[in-house]
Amino acid sequence: MTPKSVKESVGNAFDASLILGKVIAFYHRALGRDAAAIQYLSAHKLGEAKLWEVFSMGYSNGALLNALPKSGAAELIKTGILNQDGQERFLGCVVVPVYDPTGRVIQMVGRRISDGVEVLLNQDYSFVFNSVCAKADKSLFAVETVFDVLSLWQSGFKNVVGFCGKDHDLFDKFVQENGVLEVTLGFSATEGAQVLREKIGRRVEKVETIKWPEGIAGATGYFQGHGLLDFEKLIIQSQTKAQNQPTDGETKTSENGMVFERGKRFYQLCAIEKPGATRLRATVKATVEKSGKFHLDTIEFYSSRSRHAFIGEAAQLFGEKASIIAEDINQLLIYLEKFAGAKIEEPLVMTEADRESGMALGRHPDLVGEILGDMEKLGSIGERINKLIGYLVMTSRKTDYPLALQFLSGSGAGKSHLQDSILSLCPEEELVKVTSLTEQALFYKGENSLKHKVLAVEEGAGAVGARYAIRNLISARKLVIESAVRNGATGRLETQLNTVNGPTAIFETTTNPHTDAETKSRFIIASIDESPEQTRAILQAQRNAHTLEGLLRYRQGEKIRNRHRAFQRLLKPLVVLNPFEPELSYQEERMMGRRDHPKYLHLILVITFLHQMQRPMKHHPEIGDYIETTREDIALADEIAAGLFGWDELSRPSRRLLELLTQYVSEKGQRLEIAKSEVEFSRREVREAFGWSEYQMRTHLKELVQMEYVVPVSGRHGQLYRYLLVNEQLRGEKPNFEGTSGNGTHEVVEVATLSLPIKSEKRKATSRVGGGNL
């Protein structure tokens, strides 16, 4: 503020608040220029410019009198800025204004930098400083001086107020009007803190007191010799001391949780999650003795909002004050932390019968045949390759590099049934099944909740937002996220690092063939057999479901599942080596091989891992025990990979359609005695010839058009489209494009792509050991 503006601010009409506002602005400008004031504040850990700005802090350096006209002094005497001798009351003081809720100045507090003496504009005047923070937070720190508030605020505790003065009724009214729930008192005077504690104790659910170390009068003095971590420890020590007071409650533990009894109030806890740095969750059932009335909810015990919501409901249930229920929950938290922290997950104990059954399966000379046969008994018809790859992906969860599998087909083809049949053989404790996933849901799972487990998504459309997390879980084998959370002890927002460890085997089903390339490259894509032959087999099995044979097979289902779960539990993590790996080969023409090749190599290792009970154990002094891959393992991997991996630029059903079209065009050309390159066909024509559905034909013909194996030569919207085949067999014969409509563009129909089984002869695997196919 310039001297001229100060003169203009002092007019004939007396307005103390307006004049004080102008003086505060003048002092605020002076603070930034005065080296002595800045040095004083920095030495007292109050040197942050943002703090000065938020609280309009200033400094009286004696320049105010020089900026006033002679008539202005009288007005400032009335406000109290000048004393009766015309001298500045706050000369040499750092000054902090106090505002009421309407923004009017009601008090000014100064601290002389020469001796630390506090100077007030209005003596013996009680007020609440920084009262606005109660609108954002119902859990407050309360101290007794303005400068203690400033010290805590700069240290990061924004939820701090100053209860300045001796009018405890004023502070009680403030707590009531603002709905404050918790107060932590940081008073230097023990007597004053006790009086205030008794006064506001009936208003709030919880009152705690910080005991400052010997010789320290408050927050300002404390932070001159201590840091933030020291203060947080001081808070925790104060809370622990209060919490460890004797209680009349009784606690009993059970296999699934604990029961806490307080008089006629019973709290039963279950589904207790392992505690973390910022979370401790459990499901709590509050029950009134003998009446049968109860309230059930899941509480995040480190969340003030979650606790208070439960406290309110339980208070109504028990007909008690909220403060009494709050004390119950505080005591319950102490026991819960001990219970959850000490609880160690016990390994599952198998019965001897299950162990023998699992061992017998693992040692069966035709293990693969047994797996396929058992799945057939469970109602999974056909789908040899898909069942094998599904079982191997499930088993891969126990390895260091699990596989990921996506079942792709049209709606109703049976992909979900197949996935569920496979996963029913997985131990329940190692399977996480979800219907939907939000964008960051996986990032906030428990640290080891996905480690060496199967994560199964029922439908890929329900996890679109989680694609990034799923991709990283597959590639990096863990998820790491940093987020801002509120510390339950201090109220501060802190950066919290959460890590979710893998590795994890991933399953999902989808009807959408247009999954993004980044996600698709990390999965093995398996298509469901939609052929008429497969449909007939399924229908026949359905018609046998209610026969004697079908009923007996159904009743064997649980026995079969228990057999495989026991076998899976008996599989031990161990090292698998493939001595033939350097001699293997893989198609190098397509860049996609860079992604598919590791899948192929890991598939071989998983097959060996599955047969670990049949492989001789070897030992190396550096890597310990291990087993080795056999030629039979590679042969099985070749059979599976030949049907699933992307060695062809076309999808399997589109490749099958191209084979059928090539044969059809050749036969039609011979019948009509025209060149094959001139044979046109329509979708309906070949659909009826091949017995394909309209959806299948439209979808896969679109792929052939996009990949330039087929070209449209006539047609437009509302008219019949006709096509010509262009492939290896027809090269050298130019197709006739005279019938192409318009500018030669063709129809592009945005539809979902189905993948169908290839009936053609199995392609030979490219793996070579000793120059021959394995």
| Approximate helicity band | 25-40%
Q: Give the neighbour order of strands across the main sheet.
A: 5-7-6-8-9
Q: What does the main sheet amount to?
A: 5 strands, mixed
- What is the strand tally? 29
Which structural class best describes the helix and strand composition? alpha/beta
Number of helices: 26
CA gyration radius, whole angstroms: 39 Å
Q: Ends: how far apart?
A: 90 Å
Strand content: 15-25%
What average pLDDT do the residues reach? 80
Give the low-confidence spans: 1-13, 243-247, 729-774
Shape: elongated
Write up this protein.
- This protein has 774 residues and is of the alpha/beta class.
- Helix content is 39%, strand content 18%.
- It has 26 helices and 29 strands.
- It has a 5-stranded mixed sheet, sandwiched between helices.
- Strand 2 and strand 3 form a beta hairpin.
- Helix 14 crosses helix 15, helix 15 crosses helix 16 and helix 24 packs across helix 26.
- The longest helix has 21 residues.
- The protein starts with a helix and ends with a strand.
- The N terminus and C terminus are likely disordered.
How is this structure best summarized?
The chain is an alpha/beta fold and 774 residues long. 39% of the residues lie in helices and 18% in strands. Helix 2 (16-31) crosses helix 5 (72-79) and helix 6 (146-154) packs across helix 9.
